[in-house]
Design brief:
alpha/beta, 4-stranded antiparallel sheet, 12 strands
């Protein structure tokens, strides 16, 4: 009787081999992350001077006992100046890991940027623009831009705020970190100014309050105030309206829209909600299984979607004019991130497969000057663009 293979089973020998290979790679990447380097090593040039952020062929991996999880597997997209770029996709598609890679907040040694570029147009203290490749910066050098030039609004404010310190103490800390010579009164004045900016009616009262004394909407406004305290050029908003009721959601979105104009900066908005993307974004990036499968202007993605996955996401939205009493769902499951197939990751769930879908993973195909899709259905069309 032939012995059947269990694809999900790893022998002790295989586990030891994986652990040995992972340990070697993690040690190399950790050493690179904590190396001493001259500024010239991570200075770069922006491909387009109108972009504030350029992510190119980014690979972010997690080294586990079962193998290497390719959470971000060759992601490329741009964030233009004074624009909002929406990142959308199912849970686990790599949206938040991409944002954590930009902020260099990956939990090491398991989480590492394996390769790729994250080019950012920063400004030095004398106002001269310097372009940094964040992926190549030693972690100590990242502190000069993290929180100061790139700020992040995290998904859950209650877990992001420290419950044993007042709101004022936590806001003041941002000023002290980026302006060590600031006095306590200067830090307080800046914090009150930020609380006013985000529309908090009684800033002095909130300044002296603890996180548990505030509502969810107020805590989220505090998180936005904290992100704005150092006048960043780029704000990364990771699900900024999660767990908030629709009225508060609308207020937070209006606030973000107004703030983008006031700070003269850009926003990278991560969300599951296609309605928020349609309302807020100028450009949309659709991710699936660690890759970008479609990107373009918000009008192109919503009115002329090309990838079957993007079409499926739009069908899953509840609508008032729907005749069905059930929501559409995309059949099948996302492939195992450890052993990704060589062909299109969406092939097993796609209802529009063509013969070439069983071949190599499709590259990005340009279907218009601003619209790109990774799908074999458009190979011939791309030749005529």
């Amino acid at each position: 009787m032939a012995k059947t293979e269990n694809k999900h089973y790893l022998s002790g020998k295989e586990i030891r081999a994986i652990a040995k290979a992972n340990a070697k790679e993690m040690k190399r990447l950790e050493a690179y992350k904590y190396r001493k380097a001259e500024e010239s090593e991570f200075l770069t040039e922006m491909r387009d001077p109108n972009n504030i952020l350029e992510i190119e062929d980014l690979h972010t991996y997690f080294y586990t006992e079962q193998g290497v999880v390719k959470a971000v597997n060759g992601v490329s997209f741009d964030v233009p100046k004074n624009m909002t770029v929406g990142i959308v996709g199912e849970s686990g598609c790599g949206k938040s890991v991409t944002s954590m890679s930009v902020m260099r907040l990956l939990q090491g040694p398991q989480g590492q940027i394996a390769s790729g570029s994250i080019r950012f147009a920063a400004k030095s203290e004398d106002g001269v623009q310097k372009n940094y490749d964040i992926a190549k910066m030693p972690i100590r050098e990242v502190f000069r831009i993290r929180g100061k030039e790139i700020a992040m609004i995290f998904q859950e404010p209650m877990t992001s705020l420290n419950p044993i310190f007042t709101i004022g103490e936590q806001l003041d800390e941002v000023t002290f970190i980026h302006k060590p010579k600031a006095t306590k009164q200067e830090a307080k004045d800046k914090s009150i100014e930020m609380l006013n900016l985000v529309g908090i009616a009684m800033p002095e009262r909130v300044y002296n309050a603890y996180p548990h004394e505030l509502s969810g909407g107020m805590r989220q406004r505090v998180m936005i105030a904290m992100a704005l305290a150092s006048d960043p050029r780029l704000i990364i908003a990771d699900e900024p309206t999660t767990a908030l009721d629709v009225t508060i959601q609308a207020q937070i979105l209006d606030l973000l829209r107004d703030l983008k104009t006031k700070i003269d900066g850009s926003i990278m908005l991560i969300t599951h909600d296609l309605g928020i993307i349609a309302e807020m974004a100028d450009y949309v990036v659709v991710m699936y299984a660690g890759r970008v499968i479609e990107k373009g202007t918000v009008q192109e993605i919503f009115h002329d979607p090309r990838h079957p996955y993007t079409m499926g996401l739009q069908k899953s939205k509840p609508t008032l004019d729907s005749d069905s009493d059930t929501l559409f769902n995309i059949p099948g499951n996302v492939p195992n991130p450890i052993n990704m197939p060589d062909h299109c990751y969406f092939k097993e769930r796609c209802s529009q497969c063509v013969k070439s879908c069983s071949g190599e993973y499709p590259g990005m195909i340009q279907v218009s000057p601003t619209h790109f899709v990774a799908c074999h259905m458009y190979d011939e069309e791309a030749q005529n663009v």
